[in-house]
Amino acid sequence: MEDIETLLMQIISYSGDCKSSCIEALDLFKEEDYSQVNSKLKSAYNSLLKAKKIHAKLLSESVDSRTMQISLFLVHAEDQMMSAETTITLVRKFLEIIEKKEGISND
Questions:
Q1: Cα–Cα distance, 79 to 55 (Å, whole number)
Q2: pLDDT over threshold 90, residue 60
Q3: Is 10 within 8 Å of 54 (Cβ atoms)?
Q4: Roughly what angle, to the nearest 10 degrees, separates helices 34-65 and 4-30?
Q5: Closest CA to 3 of 63, 73, 66
Q6: In percent, how much of the chain has pLDDT > 70?
Q7: What CA–CA distance (Å, rounded) separates 5 from 1?
Q8: Are 43 and 80 in contact (CB under 8 A)?
Q9: Residue 48 above 90 pLDDT?
Q10: Kind and range of the H or E element at 95?
Q11: Cβ atoms within 10 Å, residue 38
Q12: How many other C-beta atoms lie within 10 A of the C-beta of residue 96?
């Protein structure tokens, strides 16, 4: 098993990638480059999935070993992951609303 600090850094990194891709998707939408928006959102979702997979692995291992060591680093990693999940959810909803209002097809 990799050390916990490395896994937590991966969660933070993938979560940051997710949020960055979401902002890039919004920027592309603003510039009317609709063909790239879905690709960026897919990339954001894939980064979030990677973070969640690592998080699930940590949870599973802590249950198996019956120990759960809470640290500020763990809390920070989980906070970043939750923030990424909120960001992608809101960006998707915002774009959906704007597309409907403006009659934009972003398929």
A1: 12
A2: no
A3: yes
A4: 160
A5: 73
A6: 93
A7: 11
A8: no
A9: yes
A10: helix 72-102
A11: 14
A12: 11
pLDDT in the model for residue 106: 62
Place of tokens 């960001």: 87
3-state secondary structure (DSSP) of residue 105: coil
DSSP string, 38-93: HHHHHHHHHHHHHHHHHHHHHHHHHHHHT-----HHHHHHHHHHHHHHHHHHHHHH
Tokens of 68: 């759960």
pLDDT at position 107, please?
A: 60
Q: How confident is the model at residue 102 (pLDDT cuts 50, 70, 90)?
A: confident
Q: Which of 103, 89, 99 is nearest to 29 (CA)?
A: 99
Tokens of 80: 């970043």
b/e map 52-73, b = 16+ CB within 10 Å: bebbeebeeeeeeeeeeeeeee
